């Protein structure tokens, strides 16, 4: 239980750093948070593929939403800023830990995604000065629908990579 609480607190600290710091050197704190996560709660071997996959897939998804006009960062851009991409990395660090309870049954993740993600985006947008050109309620509705699907998919990534890692360990021990 203490490790689950630490995981949640590390995520929350990282979220605050990202939305308040923007693309500044303060984002190095996120590297420290991920380092602490990998050294104390997990390992690169166990979660490296998951962290990278969620970081890349999530960054692509948010960049797609940006290009659809869901977000406006106040400048012409095709890719989301680093601070928003790092939030995906931080989220990935919670999937096998403090958010593991949302993996089964699948609808738990859907409900959490549909309710929690829009609130997180809304709060982050307010703090970071991100405009929502489609309107607040329309944007929250879009994000709720997207995240009702995204969370179960992310848990699918976590399950796949966890199984691969366990198979790797079994094959090493049987050799």
How does this model look, in words?
The protein is globular, with a radius of gyration of 16 Å. It has one domain. Helices cover 75% and strands 0% of the residues. The protein has helices at 2-21, 28-41, 44-67, 82-92, 106-128, 136-174. The protein has six helices and no strands. Helix 1 (2-21) packs antiparallel against helix 2, helix 1 (2-21) runs parallel beside helix 5 and helix 3 runs antiparallel to helix 6. This is Membrane protein. It comes from Ectopseudomonas composti. The chain crosses the membrane at residues 50-68, 80-99, 140-161. Keywords: Membrane, Transmembrane, Transmembrane helix.
Summarize the structure.
This protein is mainly alpha-helical. It has six helices and no strands.
Count the domains. Answer: 1
H/E element string? HHHHHH
What's the count of strands? 0
The DSSP helix count reads 6
Could you tell me the strand content as a percent range?
under 5%
Radius of gyration: 16 Å
Bin the helical content: over 70%
Straight-line N-to-C gap: 34 Å
Low-confidence segments, ≥5 residues, pLDDT <50?
A: none
The oligomeric state of the chains shown is single chain
Protein name: Membrane protein
Transmembrane segments: 50-68, 80-99, 140-161
Keywords: Membrane, Transmembrane, Transmembrane helix
Pfam family, one: DUF2878
């Amino acid at each position: 239980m203490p490790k689950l609480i630490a995981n949640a607190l590390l995520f929350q600290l990282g979220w605050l750093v990202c939305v308040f710091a923007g693309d500044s050197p303060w984002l190095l704190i996120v590297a420290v948070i991920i380092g602490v996560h990998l050294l104390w709660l997990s390992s690169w071997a166990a979660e490296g593929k998951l962290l990278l996959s969620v970081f890349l897939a999530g960054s692509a998804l948010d960049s797609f939403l940006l290009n659809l006009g869901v977000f406006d960062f106040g400048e012409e851009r095709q890719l989301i800023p680093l601070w928003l991409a790092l939030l995906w990395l931080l989220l990935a660090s919670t999937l096998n830990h403090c958010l593991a309870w949302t993996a089964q049954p699948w609808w738990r993740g859907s409900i959490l995604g549909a309710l929690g993600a829009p609130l997180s985006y809304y709060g982050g947008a307010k703090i970071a000065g991100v405009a929502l050109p489609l309107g607040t309620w329309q944007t929250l509705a879009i994000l709720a629908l997207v995240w009702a699907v995204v969370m179960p998919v992310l848990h699918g990534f976590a399950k796949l990579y966890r199984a691969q890692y366990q198979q790797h360990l079994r094959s090493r021990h049987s050799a």
